[in-house]
Amino acid sequence: MKIVLMEPLGISQDKLDELSAFLPQAGHSFIAYPDRATAPEQLAARIADAEILILANQPLREDVLCQCPNLRMISIGFTGVDHVDVDYCKSRGIWLSNASGYSTNAVAELAFGLMVAVSRKIIACDQATRSGRDKTDLIGFELAGKTLGIVGTGAIGLKTAEIGKAVGCRVVAYSRSQRPEALAMGIEYLSLETLLQESDIVSLHVPVTPDTKGLIDATRLSLMKPSAILINTARGPVVDSQALATALRAGRIAGAGLDVFDTEPPLPEEQPLRDCPNTVVTPHVAFATQESMVKRAVIVFDNVRQWLNSSPINQI
Length: 316
Description:
Blueprint lengths: L1 E4 L7 H8 L1 H4 L3 E4 L7 H8 L4 E4 L6 H4 L7 E4 L9 H6 L3 E3 L6 H16 L2 H9 L16 E5 L3 H12 L3 E5 L5 H5 L3 E2 L2 H7 L2 E4 L13 H4 L7 E4 L8 H9 L5 E4 L20 E3 L8 H19 L8
Parallel strand pairs: 1-2, 1-3, 3-4, 4-5, 6-7, 6-9, 7-8, 9-10, 10-11, 11-12
Helix pairs in contact: 1-13, 6-8
């Protein structure tokens, strides 16, 4: 079979060679591109005759997929799969596997890092110190004793909750279903509206679906305390960007820590959250650490190995 790695996985060449070695050993062809295709026609030319694709978060839509008649399996090196045309793949019987779990620690740690950065005004403190100023107007607040609201209690949401409990937060949650692990941690499930009203920090950990797109809109932002902060390391479209920008500029909430946006960084100048006050923004980096990149690569190649052995795993 012909297997194509569409884009780099963020690992060394030595590690890539190690993880992919089983493919040529079993008589398969393996091609790894060192960069992303910059246009749909370029991508289509690279993968047209592939039978298995490996990718991270490069968009893969029907206009390209329809030019791949031999495609039978896609191993996606990401937890969320909204960048792949899942419905089209399923209509053709293409097997999809993802890499759920590879970035649980990485995303939870950055989510909490954003909480600290916003609550203690770390970016503003850094700028003030480098400019020869003091701490005037830079006194933040502690997380201990505050209510941390977790929206979505999957693996990353629960890991973030665990960190919150460790520093002394009261943790509440909203999710479609109550997880036994969360209840065992003493987490109280609330309605989304009640969570927004009671929380000092709201941290989002849900995928983007028709039900969650725009979940945090102007109406729900208005329920939050003026002293509260919003953290989004999930997906940009879960939040109405313009509504959040308006709330931040009006001081209706105290701040936000954002790793995801409506579009992938680099952000255009017109992105409403790019220059909002009391925000810390990062370029969709939560999932990416040295450790998580290796974990991801191990999973995506294992997905391929298991599918080739007729024991497929991690189905979407």
